[in-house]
Amino acid sequence: MMNDTIKDLKTEQAFANQIQKTFKTARVRVVREKRVEVIMSADMIPPYLTHAKNQHDFEHLTHISCVDWLEEGHFELVYILWSYSMNIQLLVKCRIPRHEPEFISIHKIWDHAETYEREIHEMYGITFAGNDNLGEFLLEDWDGPPPMRRDFDTVKYSQENFKDRMDARQDAQNVRETITKRSGEEMPDFAKPYSLR
Amino acid sequence: MDININDKDGRKIVDIIQSYASKHSLWVLAYGTGCGAIEIPPTMTSRYDAERFGITGRPTPRMADVLLITGYLATKTLKRVIRSYEQMQSPKYVIGFGSCTINGGMYWDSYNTIKSLDHYLPVDVYINGCMPRPEAVISGFVKLQEMISNGEAKGWEKYRDNIDLYRSQQKEVIKNWQMPDYNW
């Protein structure tokens, strides 16, 4: 049984070496079993994804994710792929400059990438050239900055736009205690705080 | 002003009978927002059996008396809620359900979620808790029944009389207002 749980990373390592041989500038790393990470420059992304889909059976694009590296001035796009034949999850990462948030659409490789790109466009303000459908997606009538960017202050925005209850009591009180006092009943044992039991 | 001998505390006898009838047939619009709707099936089904109070679900706003707001409201959802509310036939009541409708709850700093429901719709009863259990839900409904029989649940009259105020507050968060006007 023990031998089953400790996996050797032979498949992952062989696959990683293969990528490294073909794409010399990429940085390939085996993260753990069933997970390989590839970091490459942005211009290599469309050819590499085509290669991964056609040569290594990465036929499933699970998600496109975006990370905001505010201090370094980058957006990081993460393409998460899955191969059913190798059972490997592949993370393809690239960085694009924050002041010029433009990238190329990959919806010709996977059709459903269009939807993920629409979401990233709405939440981070990245435009994807070639995707004609970058309109309103989840937010309706949104006129603020893209809300998932780290320099967007959600607390300030919500205080400015949504009225709060001004007469609200801000302290937390024990609801059960209040109710038992009001109704004149004794609090059951299971409801008491541990210190009083 | 003619005073009928059957009138009680300034309320007409017909109103008293009508409120007696409507408090025992609170029909709830089957519309769930947020996560609170998950507490409605146990409330309605055999364990807590809310139907013994005359509380049951209805498919369309025009059949319903009670609009149960079960959780947080994004501005996008608020638009749909206002449309549903305005299509309901009066007398109609609103129950705010969970802490999200009271002060935003865990969405207090969200960029797209309203904080206090009664700026936009007249709320008759609030049920606090995150989530309120079915007992709390039923207790809220019983409170509403008491208010109806005392003639206190007049949120819909307040909304009708102050429609301009409510509209202006609704338009603050719903910027692109493209809604039909209903007449009462």
Describe the protein's architecture and organization.
The complex is a heterodimer of chains A (197) and B (184). With 197 residues, chain A is α/β, with parallel strands linked by helices. Chain A has a domain at 2-137: 2-Layer Sandwich (Beta Polymerase, domain 2), CATH 3.30.460. In chain A, 29% of the residues lie in helices and 24% in strands. Chain A contains six helices and seven strands. The two termini of chain A are 45 Å apart. The mean pLDDT of chain A is 88. Chain B is of the alpha/beta class and 184 residues long. Chain B contains seven helices and five strands. In chain B, β4, α4 (99-103) and β5 (125-127) form a beta-alpha-beta unit. The longest helix of chain B is centred in the C-terminal third of the chain and has 16 residues, at 134-149. The two termini of chain B are 26 Å apart. The interface between A and B is medium-sized, with 18 and 24 residues.
In short:
The complex is a heterodimer of chains A (197) and B (184). Chain A is α/β, with parallel strands linked by helices and 197 residues long. Chain A has 6 helices and 7 strands, in the order ααββαββββαβαα.
Largest sheet of chain A: 5 strands, mixed
Cα end-to-end separation of chain B: 26 Å
* Oligomer status: heterodimer
Could you say which overall geometry of chain A the principal axes of the C-alpha atoms support?
Answer: extended
Number of helices of chain A: 6
Q: Calculate the mean pLDDT score of chain A and round it.
A: 88
Greatest interface by residues involved: A-B, 18 and 24 residues
Secondary-structure element string of chain B:
HEHEEHEHEHHH
Major sheet description of chain B = 3 strands, parallel
User: Which regions of chain B contain 5 or more consecutive residues with pLDDT less than 50?
Assistant: none
Task: Record the strand order, biggest sheet of chain B.
Answer: 3-4-5
| Anisotropy-based shape of chain B | globular
pLDDT averaged over residues of chain B: 88
Strand content range of chain B: 5-15%
Q: Tell me the Rg of chain B in angstroms.
A: 17 Å
Helix content of chain B: 25-40%
**What's the count of strands of chain A?**
7
**Numbering strands along the chain, what is their spatial order in the largest sheet of chain A?**
1-2-5-4-3
Structural class of chain B: alpha/beta
Helicity range of the residues of chain A? 25-40%
Estimated radius of gyration of chain A: 25 Å
